[in-house]
Amino acid sequence: MAEKNILKLDSVTPAPGSRPKRQRIGRGHGSGMVKTGGEGGKGQTVRSGGGKGPAFEGGQTPWARRLPHRRGYSQKARDIGHFRTRLAVVNLHQLAQWDASLVITPDSLVERGVISSPRDGVKILGTARPGKTLPTGLQLRDVLLSRTAREALVAAGAHIEEA
Prior knowledge:
By secondary structure, the protein is low in regular secondary structure. It is about 15% helix and about 10% strand.
């Protein structure tokens, strides 16, 4: 019976050249890695985790401690998710096939598959494509609009309910 070419764990190897050979330390003068083994001299810098921090200024009072004390959160120091509002974006040309009898809300946009999730809100931008026109009498509720989108929707006779 012919043996099938089956992949087994004992035959799995990394691609040639993807794993460089490790440096062998302390194996004679010819290796160039003798005595200190690439660690330099003695003292703080040789120790694991040793050295000054990135904010060390030679003993001078560090910059962060020279600043006047401020209370509360700094938005710049926090990650983006805490303070920024993330909007789901819809372009006007995506509403060209919309049924005018349906009200455009964040939930209806998700149901129709125009956006995957409403995030912190939905904003409609005025990007249009040639050959795509808006249906007349669109109704919009609970969405934000850019200036160009508002102008185009008003010109098409849309009814906009402000949030």
